[in-house]
Amino acid sequence: MSEPSRATSRARFRDPADERPLTKLLLILVGMLFLAFFLFLPLVAVFVEAFRKGVEAYVEALVEPDAVSAIRLTLLVAAIAVPLNLVFGIAAAWAIAKFDFKGKAFLITLIDLPFSISPVISGLVYVLLFGSQSVLGPFLKSYGIEILFAVPGIVLATVFVTFPFIARELIPLMQDQGSGDEEAALSLGASGWQTFRYVTLPNIKWGLLYGVLLCNARAMGEFGAVSVVSGHVRGLTNTMPLHVEILYNEYNFVAAFAVASLLAALALVTLALKTLLELRFGAGGAGGRRH
């Protein structure tokens, strides 16, 4: 190939990342300005407003009985919803990644359903199922079982909006790994439980932790679905996001932002752990299959 032809070929197939320095600088500035305006400034404003009247007022807002109740309920709901989604996510990912069966595509669509439905709509679904005008609501109430405006309803709504996170994290990972390791373990005489414990689980542990982390963050911060089914009973069925809304509507801004700062801190911790897991999972994901 002649020199002009080689030059033309290099110009035609130029590396997309090989941009001019000015272009790179402009793109970086646009990205940083966007993050500063939509992420950093609101985050700083939350903590500034939370500590506006000092540390004493901040602590007082967090130890107030209704705030303690909201924090306790949020932790309780997350402690129930995340393990349920953990079991479902592993089972669904295992079935989808390791086996072929009729309805597989439909199952994947169902798993993605909460991503496409408004959380408020999902909360209304439970109102229709367990409300006073439904068939199940009066029947369960006759046995003393309260779903709506109680902890069970909040847990159900939270589980619904968070169940895709773990499954969706594990499905592509397990599909990429294939089933060769499990088949080898079974051929050597391992039981199904031994295969899962000593082969499958070590292979997916970083992806599983990543999914649990995201699921937990969403469970604690869910507002729409929980707002519909909780009844907003102060001190009883208010989670942290609902408690923030009530305080803000009462113009108690310092207390509202104090509780909101806990959720913001959770987001920061989640982001930090997410980054660490991405680094560990990205660098050691292939190696994780060997251990």
Brief summary of the model shown:
The protein has 291 residues and is mostly helical. The chain contains 14 helices and no strands. The chain has helices at residues 3-12, 21-50, 55-63, 65-98, 104-116, 119-130, 136-142, 151-162, 164-177, 180-187, 192-221, 224-230, 240-249, 253-288.
Give your account of this protein's structure:
The chain has 291 residues and is mainly alpha-helical. Helix content is 80%, strand content 0%. The chain is built from 14 helices and no strands. The protein has helices at residues 3-12, 21-50, 55-63, 65-98, 104-116, 119-130, 136-142, 151-162, 164-177, 180-187, 192-221, 224-230, 240-249, 253-288. Helix 4 packs parallel to helix 9 (164-177) and helix 8 packs across helix 11. It is globular and about 65 Å long.
